[in-house]
Amino acid sequence: MKWITRQNIKVDRVACPWLIRRFIDDKAQFLFAPENEVLAIAAREDAVPFDMPRNPELKFTHHKGLCTFEVLLREFDLKEPTLARLAKIVHAADISGEEHTAPEAPGLKAIAEGFHALNLSDEKRLAYGFPIYDALYAWCEGRAKAAAKKK
Prior knowledge:
Layout: E1 2-6, H1 11-24, E2 29-33, H2 38-45, E3 47-49, H3 68-75, H4 81-94, H5 105-117, H6 122-150
Parallel strand pairs: 1-2, 1-3
Helix pairs in contact: 1-6, 4-5, 4-6
């Protein structure tokens, strides 16, 4: 399956491809384009557009206060506690004014902004970002297991 989003990816637009590859479609391909070209390219390439907040009619974008990562969790019925914890961090790092809702969010946002400052291609941002999300997922998993033991 092909997916497409706006170029110059940061938090949510790195987290979503990570989630898609790890939990939805391990062979997914990702395309990046200027925002005003995404929908035309999506139609031509038979690609699923995602994280396009200016197009609220799309299925996989911000909805009712949720970031796209959270929408993907809901739409693909991914209910694992580790992903739920990770979603809170992604949400807090991605949604302006929500940084205070997860203490890890400023660090994740700083990493995304750092990749942007390095002027990395979107493909490199995914290549460098996926191990960061793997590590963050592992950390969340450890926290979830510790919390479960306390119950």
